[in-house]
Structures are given as structure tokens and as C-alpha cells.
Amino acid sequence: MxxxxxxxxxxxxxxxxxxxxxxxxxxxxxxxxxxxxKKTIYQYYKDKxxxxxxxMNNHLKEREQSYLQIADLAADPIDExxxxxxxxxxxxxxxxxxxxxxxxxxxxxxxxxxxDHKEKCLKGYIVDILNKxxxxxxxxxxxxxxxxxxxxxxxxxxxxNIAVFPPLQFPIQELQMQFIDYFLHGICTLKGHKxxxxxxxxxxxx
Length: 206
Prior knowledge:
Layout: H1 2-20, H2 27-34, H3 38-44, H4 48-73, H5 77-91, H6 99-106, H7 108-135, H8 145-158, H9 172-187, H10 190-200
Helix pairs in contact: 1-2, 1-4, 4-5, 4-7, 5-7, 5-9, 6-7, 7-8
């Protein structure tokens, strides 16, 4: 029962945070939404900072599992990068676009967990995809995979910068798909470009 309650609190808080942002939601509102007392939440989490960290950790673990599933399902490195971008797009479809900014500004410990995830997990995953693509002749041999992997990650995160891309003007889902299209066309060989066109169902000119 204690484990089930703890998971219920994390899931309930995550749902609230993703919909409305992190800063505005109070422990009282989380408790009210779950139909429990605030005291019950404090039995498991000493404060909101600790709860936000737990929500972030839980979210990142789910993402790591999704990366493994994408790797298993992808037909090739181009398909894998497209599927990864689609996953990112879909996972943020109903998420308040200011959430990452709020976590960075008000919950530095939770944000550090996100930074560590980017460096240790996501970057490593993208490096592996890029190396596979080079071996298969889909990506250019002259690209620096460490540099390009970091560029891709920062490109993803840039889409959440509301000062650069106001969400009402640039919907996050469309933005991320534009980014991956631009990214792939920059790193692909002629063989890779032909494969992109196949996936996009574009008829090549003679």
C-alpha cells in the first residue's frame, strides 16, 4: 500500500505539472486532486522540491525505456531519428511549454537530473545512431558525432524556449518536426537523402 500510494502521488503530481506548469501548482491542489490529505503527501515527500525531483526522475526513466523500444522498432538510423523526434513531439503534445523553463529556474536539483539525463543517456543514444548511420553510408563520414549529437539535443531544447519560439505562433509539435527535417538533410549522404524522400513519399526528380 505505501508503494502504491507513493506511485499515485507521483503520477498525480506529474499530470498536474505537465498540464499547468510546475511553479503554479501547490501541494494542496495535488492533494485535493488525488482525494487525499496534504499530510499524506508529506509522509512521502518532505517538500515540493523533493516531489518535483521524484516526478522528474520517474519521467526520465520512462523516456529511457522508450528509447530502447524505438531502437528495437526502427528500420534504420534515419527511421530511428525520425521515430525519436516523433516520440518527443507526441510526448509533449499536451504539455505546458513553460515547464522546462520553470524547472530550470525554480527547481535546480530536478533540472540537474534532466541535464544529467541529456548528457549520459540521450546524447549517448544519439551518438550510437549517428555512428550506425555512418557505417551504413547514410550519414556523412566527416560529421563529428559528439558535436552533432549535442547540437541535436540543444536543438530539441531550443524548441521550448518561449522567448525564441512563442508557442502560439510556433506549435511545439510542428517545430520539432521541422527541426528533425532540417537536421537530417544536413547530415545525410545522397543515399540517406534518397531514403528520407522514401519516408516522406517524395517523388525524386530525374
